[in-house]
Design brief:
about 290 residues, alpha/beta, six-stranded mixed sheet, four-stranded antiparallel sheet, 6 helices, elongated
């Protein structure tokens, strides 16, 4: 993992300065021998609103994924309409030779119990969770929740709570009417990625991107702590990572770091004006502390 800080500054009316600090965090790719094992759950929306092309695209995406996993990877498949169904318990490849066919047999149903499907996927991932693995729920849906937990803030909070214990969430939206706001919020809070699929033939490309990211993961549970020195103030952080205050510091939960996807944090600080007669000098403005597994 490599870090770098780029700076610029400009004067402000009271004689002080506005300082911008861009923190760049880059991962390094692993070799095949150091490949990270995957522990995944595919949660697929089969509700009535997914009927037709959306459901076919979702099934194609799921088939594309399981066909690209390594034999030692663990995957489960959950579907939901108003009820939650288990298509495949968590297993490695030797026990799932027929899984693409089982996914092909999924049919559209009724209402949309999105929370129930996601919770079952999280349960399966948590049961097999091990340190050093990628533990992730992959939610394939149009996001139109109408059964179970439907409040966006609560659904987003569930994803954030899971991310705090190492289980991340990626969302894949389908169809023109998908709930982009909800699915983007869930993926950001869950430390994963978000995608949109309009047509079934886009599915393989989307999962090629997601799998390549998963396979090139460099660090998990990445966080950035920003602590200004006395007399200076952090006035803005220009990224929407979940954050919390700890005394005089701000702690950002950034999620996973991939070799091909650097993370950036841009922070702005207000620096107090120099006292009369005080000479220019170098000063400590803030400390950035980056931690990860």
């Amino acid at each position: 993992m490599k870090t770098e800080i780029l700076l610029d500054h400009e004067p402000i009316a009271d004689g002080g300065w506005l300082l911008r600090a861009l923190l760049k965090i880059e991962g390094t790719p692993r070799t095949a021998e150091g490949r990270v094992p995957l522990n995944l759950s595919i949660v697929l929306d089969r509700s009535g609103s997914m009927m037709g092309e959306k459901l076919e695209a979702a099934k194609e995406a799921a088939r594309s994924l399981v066909q690209r996993l390594w034999p030692e990877d663990v995957v489960s498949v959950v579907t939901y309409d108003n009820e939650v169904q288990v298509v495949a318990q968590p297993e490695t490849g030797e026990h799932q030779a027929d899984l693409p066919n089982r996914i092909s047999g999924i049919r559209a149903g009724g209402a949309t119990n999105l929370s129930g499907g996601w919770l079952k996927g999280r349960e399966f991932v948590a049961a097999g969770q091990r340190a050093g693995e990628v533990n992730r729920v992959l939610l394939l849906t149009d996001g139109l929740a109408n059964v179970g937990i439907t409040e966006p803030e609560t659904l987003t909070g569930l994803c954030q709570s899971a991310a705090e214990v190492g289980i991340t969430t990626t969302t894949i939206g389908f169809g023109d009417g998908y709930d982009e706001v909800l699915l983007t919020a869930m993926s950001r809070a869950g430390g994963g990625n978000d995608y949109y699929i309009e047509h079934a033939d886009q599915a393989p490309g989307v999962f090629e991107e997601e799998l390549e990211g998963l396979l090139s993961i460099s660090a998990q549970n990445l966080s950035v702590r920003i602590e200004p020195t006395a007399g200076n103030e952090c006035v803005q952080v220009w990224h929407e990572y979940p954050c919390q205050s700890e005394e005089d510091a701000l702690v950002l939960t950034v999620g996973d770091l991939y070799a091909r996807e650097p993370r950036h944090v841009l922070a702005e600080f207000l620096l107090k004006p120099a006292e009369d007669g005080e000479e220019e000098a170098e000063i400590d403005v803030a400390t950035f502390t980056v931690t990860a597994d």
